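Weekly structure sync, notes
Attendees: PL, DS, HV (note-taker this week)

Item 1: Aldehyde dehydrogenase (NAD(P)(+)) ald5
DS walked through the input record. Source organism listed as Apiotrichum porosum. Sequence as pasted into the shared doc:
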Amino acid sequence: MTVIPATDSATHAAIEIPGLGKITVPIGLFINNEWVLPTKGQTFTVVDPSTALPIVDVAHAMAEDVDRAVHAARAAFETTWGNNVSGAHRGNLLNKLADLMDRDVATIAALESLDAGKGISVATSGDVPESANCLRYYAGMADKVHGQTIDQFGGKKLAYTLNQPIGVCGQIIPWNYPLMMWAWKVAPALAAGCTVVMKPSELTPLSALYMCDLIKEAGFPAGVVNTVPGLGSTAGEAISRHLDIDKVAFTGSVATGRRISVAAAESNLKKVTLELGGKSPALVFPSADLDQAANWLGLGIFYNSGQDCCASSRVYVHDSVYDKFVSLLKLKAETCKVGLPSDENTSFGPLISAGQRDKVLSYIDSAREEGATITAGGKRWAQAEGFFVEPTVLTDVNQNMKVVREEIFGPVVAVGKFSTEEEGVHLANDTPYGLAGAVFSSDASQVTRVAAKINAGTIWINNYCALSNGVPFGGFKQSGIGRELGTAGIEAYTQIKGVHHNLTEVMSWPF
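Item 1 (cont.): predicted structure, written out as tokens:
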């Protein structure tokens, strides 16, 4: 990857992208609708996961830079945003932003593909349009946030509630879906009237930075959205502990979610929404369409190269159809379209980093050492220099294995057996996680019954990975706190104020 020194400023750089040629991308901090340099002048390097080569150096925000962003966000919240503008106006701006994404879909998708290792066709047809649709969903809700009137006091008083924006919100997003996680957080926050200080992952900041220019072009007031790329230990820690941030929303690991909760509690007890890890189970019953189940569960574990918090990483199959299902899933693994992200045919690209690749391979090694069978995959994909791991199917597993207990965050599925419905539900729930799950069966009563018994925030019946902007998403147990998407997503950025209006009561004294 060739990096050309910027000609316009130190906050932008030109990079060469396959199919688009040289394009100029922002690499600075976006504060108060301006591109600025970090106070201490530090940077970090973004790497192409398909080649292991550097793409560009990006500004590294420190606590002082986060503070600048928070001041800008607070000023905007109190003057040009928040309760100072109508919900309809906020919705119009979100729609304009979505239109700009449609206009620039080729560029945004290319950045997402380059930065995160996604197949270009996947980014073009999936990540970018779905993110724009999320903006439009919340644009439609921006003028529909309202409270209640409570008239139950015999004429003595009138009470009503106001659903008001929380205020300045820090948002920390992961690297597996950089643009979609940006949209999931920014869209409801802006629709509700909040302002944002956004920290994209240091591994994949390019699409979030590109969106800042579109934010300004769409007409959002200065300070409404600010972006401070940096490490979790610097920018992320500063956001979590800042005394003038009213809420922090985070998607990522359970360990980091715990640290953010502690930091929020030890600072100003800011509100926290956490979407954390998962070890999602799927139950396949004898009456299921096994080929369709294998297709859906192959999608569930191999989409995005397995780097998905709700990936179908634990599959339990009724022992009467186990061997047949395993043979089908093995075929799906062996026919995945593995390749370079720039190839239009690629649907399975590299993992995000060398560290992630090595972590996944170490889990496969542990499975082998503990007695599991590597039925498909199990090693590096040798046809590229990047961070590729083959789609992997593990069989002969048990509940005590690391690959069954711990989140791998890679293209590795453990396939176990069950004999009865009760045993299957027990195995599904035998985990500290509770993000998602699935049931495959043609018995309508069974799927309804089992879906209710699996302890997870999302359950798919005879499908997998089919999310919708209108349906809330979040976890049970250690998979998180709160919900994103749907009406719950915008409610997470509001707080309720009860107002008591005296009509006839007179206060005597002494009381």
